[in-house]
Design goal:
7 helices; Rossmann fold; alpha/beta; 6-stranded mixed beta sheet; 4-stranded antiparallel beta sheet; 263 residues
């Protein structure tokens, strides 16, 4: 299958008072069209930098990022993003918050078509009836659902999720994992998920990429056999336990904490 996202030999460093701080070193990642890749690694290894490069918000010092056969040289309207902080505007209703990207990115939708799509997305994530509420009237999980709708409103080819569930309690987080599968079934996209939660990575992704310590390279890639409509019970199978053990070990390697004699 052809890759929609290709990250080729990407190196990047931030300029600091003490000199360049390398964060990515020869990074290689490919994401097939319709695929969902989770990226994990030690804190500070450059995972969020990776999302900005894919979105075209930054340019790498060396190497290339390609989307659909085109080199990324700037921000692209075909990329949607959701972050740990939903950043909803309090003076706008939830419906108006979801519609905001269409006021910034040109759209062929009429006003009615745009509102119908926003209401459909809100219904899809369980927020029908909350369209006219303000962000402060919603729980953290509900605000994150609205943020997801906002990221999808312009039907992006690529959806980047930068730890969107990290600040939520465990029950809400697991509920949103299941919502993500439902959303992807109805609203197909190619996904890149940045997360520190290994359970989240194997539940949501088709493939988990482990980054090394900074400067990050692609240390390990774990394919996740994906059946349709997974349930939370799938996280408690022997297969899931083995996958989690592999990823935990790889994180230890990346952190330089792996037991002697192991790689």
């Amino acid at each position: 299958m052809e890759n929609l996202i290709n990250i080729k030999g990407v190196r990047h460093a931030y300029q600091t008072d003490a000199g360049p701080l390398p964060v990515l070193d020869g990074l290689e990642i490919g994401v097939p069209e319709g695929g969902f890749v989770a990226v994990v690694g030690p804190s500070g290894c450059g995972k969020s930098t990776l999302t900005r490069l894919v979105a075209g918000l930054m340019k790498p010092d060396h190497g290339e990022v390609w989307l659909h056969g085109e080199r990324v040289k700037g921000p692209r309207s075909t990329v949607g993003m959701a972050f740990q902080n939903p950043v909803l505007l309090e003076w706008r209703t939830i419906l108006k918050n979801v519609l905001l990207p269409l006021e910034i990115v040109p759209s062929k939708l009429s006003k009615k078509e745009a509102e119908d799509r926003a209401r459909f997305l809100l219904s899809l994530v369980g927020l029908d009836g909350f369209e006219d509420k303000r962000p402060s009237e919603l729980s953290g999980g509900m605000r994150q659902r609205a943020s997801l709708c906002r990221a999808l409103i312009h039907q992006p080819e690529v959806l980047i999720l930068d730890e969107p569930f990290g600040a939520l309690d465990a029950f809400t987080r697991e509920d949103l994992w299941q919502t993500m599968h439902k959303v992807k079934e109805r609203e197909p996209f190619t996904g890149v998920l940045i997360t520190h939660d290994l359970r989240e990575s194997i539940f949501l992704a088709d493939q988990v990429v482990v980054l090394s310590g900074r400067p990050a390279r692609t240390q390990y890639v774990l394919d996740i056999p994906r059946k349709s409509a997974p349930t939370l019970d799938d996280l408690y199978t022997p297969e899931a336990a083995e996958q989690l053990n592999i990823l935990r070990h790889q994180i230890q390697v990346a952190q330089g904490r792996a037991p002697e004699g192991t790689t």
